[in-house]
Amino acid sequence: MTRTGWLKRMVLVSAPAMIVGGGVQAQTAPVPHLPIERGSPNLSLHGETIDALIAAFIADNDLPGLTLAIVQAPYIPRSSGYGKASLEFDELASTKTMWNIGPITQAFTAVAVMQLKEDGKLNLSDPISTHVAGLPAAWEKVTILQLMQHSSGIPDYRPKLDNTKRYAPLELIDLVRSAPLLFKSGTRVQMSATDATLLALAVEHASGMPYRDYIRVNQIEREGLLSTMFASDFAKSAKIDRPASHPNDNQHSHFKSEVPFINPVEPATGYQFIDGHMVAVAPEASSNLFGFGDLWSSAEDISKWDIGLAGSTLIKDAADRDVVYMPAKLANGTVVPAMIGWEFTHHPGFMEVKGNSPGFSSYLSRFTESDELVCVTLLTNKEGVDLTVLARQIAAAYRGETGPDVDQRQIVAQESKFNPADTIARIKSSLAAAKVPIFASVDHAENARGIGQQLRPTTVITFGNPKVGTKLMLENQAIGLDLPLRMLVWQDAQGRTWIGYPNLDTLADRYEVKAPATIKMMTGFMDGIARHVANVYAY
């Protein structure tokens, strides 16, 4: 089934981890324009360069550092680091800095599963109990495919982790062994690190190799990923230069006599923001996410691996690649726009995988249509940072049609995985759960039909908290013209559904309102609602 085909038959998720019927957004894949125009040196969006976008994002989110790589297959025309890889040491974010890539790891695990499937060493229909002994009875019939779909219903062990401890893989399983299934396997979707850890254990059983060795041989070495490894490899393979003392601000000396220490392959330090302070996280904490979030890599290496996904160097058969890189069809026949961490929107050929791990946030997007072939990797060493909107801005700087036709300095926008009706319903449900009153919902398309005009779906939902809005109006009543808060849901000419809301920093500047704490709180709320509504998985 083609990507366009799944769009025509997809049944959408309309609540977290719940699958229900929904409207279908049919669309036609664009015809490539030949010759394909690529390589423009003018990499800016609405007058802002990529560097300016990233610098502003780092400042707004108080990031220690960030790294970026761009693919225009088969090239990686841009790879760069910004800020610091460590706040304690003189270590800068560079092209070879390794960051914990968190949930992107499960995409490597999925590739390993498909490689073993192609070698005839496992089947996607195998019950996980075929490969992992001693599991609870309720888990025994869960299949490899259901684990990849995150439709197993097996609880996620992450909420029970103590990152000061180190767990063996089976000890991770033990954290949730006694918990009941969250739902009947094959009927719903909810991301669970336990699913990926079970898959990694299946890789070990089927291959006869330790999981990390299998990944190393069949992906890292095969694709020449010199800045990709696990934390257990740092002592042997990372080039860390941290002398006990140094006479000046530059701690580095090995690079003067040892070539591998020039632009070294070294790990970043991850941070959590706790009680107003940045707290370093031990790199070994990533090992607790076995098969789900334990891999470290540079943005440039992720881009190389990403290019490998496009062809047969990692997964040989196109039909097998489609299993991983197309929406999941559940056992009950429902099609969900997600698979093993990847999520899919109505932009033809688009897919993204993202999330958090101890001290880090990660993001990878792929625009796989033949006239686009743009991929964006962003990694940062602060946990809990949503990189989705920034990544789409960067992609649009390379190919304008990949993003929304709005200036994000005025309207913050991200693409929903769902159609307009389901997206609106999800917004209303999220506001109700947060006990935020909705004051009005205006369906502009319906109003247009009332006067005999046609308008693509366009709905504004107005809501807010009078206590917060009044605080701003006491400083400048004129801001009342833009209050209460509102979200716009619209479908563009390509059939994509967007969620947009005012950039509150810009709004505050326009009315000269000096209430940074309140604006930051409101921005966080709006971002959180949009993130919850737009995605299949909870982040």
TrEMBL record:
Residues 1-26 form the signal peptide. Transmembrane segments: none annotated. Keywords: Signal. Residues 50-397 form the Beta-lactamase-related domain. This is DUF302 domain-containing protein. Residues 442-503 form the DUF302 domain. The keyword Signal applies. The keyword Signal applies. InterPro entries: AmpC-like, Beta-lactam-related, Beta-lactam/transpept-like, DUF302, TT1751-like_sf. It comes from Sphingomonas populi. It comes from the Bacteria.
